[in-house]
Amino acid sequence: MSKYSLLIFDVDGTIADTDDVIVNTYIDLYKIYKKDSPIDIKKFKTFSGPPLNETLRNEFPMLPYDYIYSEYKRISKDNYPKFIKSFKNIKEVLLNFKKNNIKLAICSSKIKESIEVCLKLLDLENIFDYIVGLDSVINPKPNKEGIDKILNYFSINKSESLFIGDTDFDYLTAKNGGLNCVIMTMLDRKYNYCNENNVKFIKSYKELEGYILNAK
Q1: Contact by Cβ (8 Å): 164, 179
Q2: What pLDDT is attached to residue 195?
Q3: CA-CA-CA-CA dihedral for 147, 65, 84, 130, to nearest 10
Q4: What is the end-to-end Cα distance of the chain in Å, rounded?
Q5: Rounded Cα–Cα distance for residues 216 and 214 (Å)
Q6: CA torsion, points 199, 203, 208, 210, in degrees to nearest 10?
Q7: Rounded distance, CA 22 to CA 211, Å?
Q8: 170 pairs with which residues across the strands?
Q9: Local confidence band at 199 (pLDDT 50, 70, 90 cut-offs)
Q10: What's the whole-model pTM score?
Q11: Largest CB tally within 10 Å, which of 59, 117, 165, 212?
């Protein structure tokens, strides 16, 4: 029996490959609102981690936030079905975790509505037991508020919980929340902080399955 009874997942780059969604949405926004600025796909990929509101304010300071946010939602809504991709074996592995009485939660910088869109498009609806999105907390990731909210909901100790993400941002979230961390490496990422003993790098969901179910 695994020592973990709760797994907390990030979404972008961890549950869903949304890199192309994010990149194409920012390309479209730049073409409309920053025509003279260069398209930097490497930079756009780094927007997978931080809260959307911070990124939009940083990238489009000349526009009212409510307006650029509505534009982001409008454009990304069309891009999700076109560009979102699943990770191999993810549904099978998540369902096996549930069969082993492991609770599954989400702690993401996406708003809850966008998380639910991702899950529906990937046929992962009704698998996760609890979802905390950007609009579920006052202090978003990497603050520990989302983790604390999840731990309190399940009444599960930190020692029995694991955070699973794909970026330095997720590592910092786990560290702030006092949890061990798995970093999934299916996508192209650079890491500056994930170098401590409580971080495990994993390259596939089948590898994650073996690691979790055999954890003592």
Answers
A1: no
A2: 66
A3: 30
A4: 8
A5: 6
A6: -110
A7: 30
A8: none
A9: confident
A10: 0.91
A11: 165
- For residue 51, the model assigns a pLDDT of 84
Give the pairing type, strands 103-107 and 130-132: parallel
Residue 17, token pair as written in the block: 């490959």
> Is residue 145 predicted with pLDDT exceeding 80?
yes
Measured CA to CA in angstroms, residue 98 lies from 8, 81, 89, 103 at distances of 13, 27, 15, 6
Mean pLDDT of 170-181: 94
Residue whose structure tokens are 């529906």:
120
Tens-place pLDDT, residues 4-16:
999 999 999 999 9
Peptide bond into 140 cis (omega under 30): no
- Amino acid code (one letter) for 18: T
Rounded to an integer, what distance in angstroms lies between the CA atom of residue 149 and that of residue 130? 10
Residue for token pair 């479209």:
28
Mean pLDDT to the nearest integer, 36-43: 93
**Cα 25 from Cα 14, distance rounded (Å):** 19
Which amino acid appears at position 84 of this protein?
Answer: I
pLDDT digit string (tens) for 70-97? Answer: 999 999 999 999 999 999 999 999 999 9
Closest CA to 19 of 83, 92, 86: 83
Q: Respond yes or no on whether the N-terminal peptide bond of residue 50 is cis (omega within 30° of 0).
A: no
Residue 215: count of CB within 10 angstroms of its CB = 13
